[in-house]
UniProtKB/TrEMBL annotation:
Residues binding AMP: K416, G417, A418, D419, T420, G445
HAMAP family tied to this protein: NADHX_dehydratase (MF_01965), NADHX_epimerase (MF_01966)
Lineage, opening ranks: Bacteria, Pseudomonadati, Pseudomonadota, Alphaproteobacteria, Hyphomicrobiales
Protein known as: Bifunctional NAD(P)H-hydrate repair enzyme
Residues reported in the UniProt entry to bind K(+): N66, D130, S166
């Protein structure tokens, strides 16, 4: 991503919040045309980085201010010696405000947007600037514009989208009818939610954020509650090992193993909990699975735990301060009871996989126990588990579904996927963007649950632990590279953690 993180910040805005930032800036005395001039200037610079003066550039402008940014870019590029051809979707007479001013200042003729005409000139274009629709898109695209977008997507051209690929909803990342598939997207001030939520993220190509003179102080008033999941979000809550500390100050995680033939998931999780800094990790195994676990474990400790009474007994050790249950544990009424015991124990608890599915028929029973729990709780559902626990949220976009799930359950919810959303019951949310495709492999989720449990054992607050866990998991997956299997993730945490220690910005 082409950005200076200090300048760009990690806040993710809705189009409405961006509109508010714009209004506050204009109220503070920066004229709208100045903002548009800078926005169009960033677009022109992106084109100039891509090709030389003399190249042919097609600018597709829409009827609003997104189109206005396109007109500014066209003027700047024309003045710099590029051959610009501008098309307008809509009536010239309906152009208003800043977009109208930018149109009037254009030294280039503007043609009405005829999809066939544009398609005929596409092959000769070095760059197509997509300035059709941005933040103001409020309904699905259809008709001639949809036909045009289809032609642009099929052509082998380099598309730079202004603010958002046209057709992508800036708040949800949804495709509204159809959407431009850009190679690069140039947005302004702060990234928007739709840049990071799928499928929007896939349509954006490379992301660039340019500053246009909006004072970041406006964010104090806007108070955005969604963030990119970067180290900025959680690094200050991460307790780095101190020389005068010892393993007990770094917490003791308890990971529950399934039976003899399903014990691998818990071992993956336990190893990851230890690798990410928990002082001690104990695997609690049913008697049938003690031998198989003993044959595999070295630094992770092992304790036999027989039935629910065994869980009660192991929890008598007050040093065990975080627990994970679910991976390979089995879906059953007994699992529900085991979860109930953990939630009543005051420990930080991570519920994953079978621990979630066991509550499919009575999710409200789980939520009421979570609300009574004295310790923090993190739920880590993938799409299927999410639908089982929160069927009433079907059809919602991922961010609002995750937020509602957190509010309904009282837990921090990690709604997994290529665009994992971490949501807290108070509405704060983070969207993760560093997971490589090859991280979606058997056992990967078990490792993630273990990492989060290990960070909770180190007494990180739940939202920060979950966010850091998701980020570490993605970074380790990238470090391990293609061909990765779940066993590779925990070892790959070492260089990632080393980089974080050296450079807390990651
Ligand atoms: N905020 C800022 O700080 C800054 C913002 N800037 C720029 O402004 C952009 C936002 O501008 P915007 O609000 O004018 O909206 P925009 O995306 O141009 O679309 C609105 C037009 O589209 C139309 N329309 C909508 N849906 C449609 C559909 N499906 N099919 C057909 N038509 C449809 C709608 O028409 P109507 O509903 O009236 O029929 C209206 O005419 C933003 O993305 C950024 O690029 C920069 O200049 C820097 C400062
Ligand atoms: K656009």
């Amino acid at each position: 991503m082409d950005e200076n993180p200090q300048e760009t910040g990690s806040e993710l805005l809705t189009p409405e919040e961006m509109g508010e930032a714009d209004r506050l800036t204009v109220d503070a005395g920066v004229p709208g045309p100045v903002l548009m001039e800078r926005a169009g200037g960033h677009v022109a610079e992106a084109v100039m980085r891509r090709c030389r003066a003399g190249s042919k550039i097609l600018i597709l402008s829409g009827p609003g201010n997104n189109g206005g940014d396109g007109f500014v870019a066209a003027r700047v590029l024309h003045e710099a010696g590029y051959r610009c051809q501008v098309f307008l979707a809509g009536e010239v007479d309906r152009l208003a405000g800043d977009a109208r001013l930018a149109f009037d200042a254009l030294p280039v003729a503007v043609s009405p947007l005829d999809p066939d005409l544009v398609a005929s000139v596409l092959p000769g274009a070095a760059v197509v600037v997509d300035a059709l629709f941005g933040a103001g898109l409020d309904r699905p695209l259809d008709g001639a514009v949809a036909q045009l977008i289809d032609a642009v997507n099929k052509a082998d051209v380099f598309v730079i989208s202004v603010d958002l690929p046209s057709g992508i909803n800036g708040e949800t990342g949804a495709v509204m009818g159809c959407a431009v598939e850009a190679k690069e997207t140039v947005t302004f001030f702060r990234f928007k939610l739709g840049h990071f939520l799928l499928p929007g993220r896939l349509a954006c190509g490379r992301l660039v954020c340019g500053q246009i003179g909006i004072d970041p102080a406006v964010l104090d008033k806007i108070a955005p509650s969604a963030f990119r999941n970067t180290p900025y979000l959680w690094r200050s809550a991460w307790p780095q090992p101190a020389l005068d500390g010892h393993k007990f100050t770094r917490g003791h995680a308890l990971v529950f193993s399934g039976g003899m033939t399903t014990s691998g998931a818990a071992r993956l999780a336990a190893g990851a909990a230890l690798r990410c800094g928990a002082g001690l990790v104990t695997l609690a195994a049913p008697p049938s699975a003690v031998m198989v676990n003993a044959a595999h474990l070295t630094a992770v400790m092992l304790t036999p735990v027989a039935g629910l009474a065994g869980i009660e007994a192991v929890l008598e050790d007050p040093r065990l301060n975080a627990a994970l249950i679910g991976p390979g544990y089995g879906v059953s009424p007994e699992t529900r009871q085991a979860v109930g015991i953990l939630l009543g124990s005051g420990r930080a608890v991570v519920l994953d996989a079978d621990a979630l599915t066991s509550f499919e028929t009575e999710p409200q029973a789980l939520f009421s126990r979570i609300r009574q729990a004295a310790g923090p709780v993190v739920l880590t559902p993938h799409g299927g588990e999410f639908r089982r626990l929160f069927p009433h949220l079907a059809g919602r976009d991922k961010l609002s579904a995750a937020r509602a799930a957190a509010a309904d359950s009282g837990a921090v919810v990690v709604y997994k996927g290529a665009d994992t959303v971490i949501a807290s019951p108070d509405g704060t949310a983070a969207i993760n963007g560093n997971a490589p495709a090859w991280l979606a492999t058997a056992g990967s989720g078990d490792v993630l649950a273990g990492i989060i449990c290990g960070l909770l054992a180190q007494r990180m607050p739940a939202f920060q632990a979950a966010s850091m866990g998701v980020w570490l998991h993605g970074a380790a997956g990238s470090a391990a590279g293609p061909g990765l299997i779940a066993e590779d993730i925990a070892p790959a945490l070492r260089p990632v953690l080393a980089r974080l220690v050296e450079n807390p910005e990651g």
